Amino acid sequence: MTPEQAEKIVNDYGAVVERLKQEGTGLLPISWLPCPKEEIKEAIKLAIGAPHADWISLRSGYRMLASFIDDDDVQLMAAVDESWLASAWAAGLIEKSPLADADAERVKALQAEVGAEYERLLKEIDDYVINVIGAAEGFSPPHPASGL
Questions:
Q1: For residue 69, what is the enclosing H or E element?
Q2: Would the CA dihedral through 99, 117, 50, 3 be positive or negative?
Q3: Cα–Cα distance between 46 and 53 in angstroms, integer?
Q4: Taking the CB of residue 67, how many other CB atoms lie within 10 A of it?
Q5: Contact, 43 vs 1, CB < 8 A?
Q6: Quick one: 40 exposed, middle or buried, by C-beta within 10 A (0-12, 13-18, 19+)?
Q7: How far is CA 15 from the centre of its chain?
Q8: How far is the CA of 65 from the CAs of 62, 97, 104, 133, in angstroms?
Q9: What are the φ/ψ torsions at residue 43 (nearest 5 degrees)?
Q10: pTM of the full predicted structure?
Q11: Of 29, 80, 119, 143, which is least packed with CB atoms within 10 Å of its CB?
């Protein structure tokens, strides 16, 4: 991938991330991505190495890739968001799920998968920055609780 291709991918992905912020939801259809996640990850890594790169924004965008899930799963999660009872169950406020058992199990699995993917991507990009860029520039990632 050339630096120009990486820049285009990062810019196209940045436009999608802005859409995510406007939608106000935490999960979006993977079909919204301008290209496969692996290409976006490669482009972000190339962009981070560029002079004057905004590595904080790029790092944030990298971990946000976890928010893009299969389109069908987004519809299931939207149904949970639209139902007060389903939302209360998902938050652990009520014991019995108003969803069908299979859907309830899928929602729980999705929540766990997205959380684990988020943490994995954060570690992956921090390790990359430390190993590739940080050694030369004294990079130290912010504490995970900082939200950066």
A1: strand 68-69
A2: negative
A3: 10
A4: 17
A5: yes
A6: buried
A7: 14
A8: 6, 28, 24, 21
A9: -65, -40
A10: 0.72
A11: 143
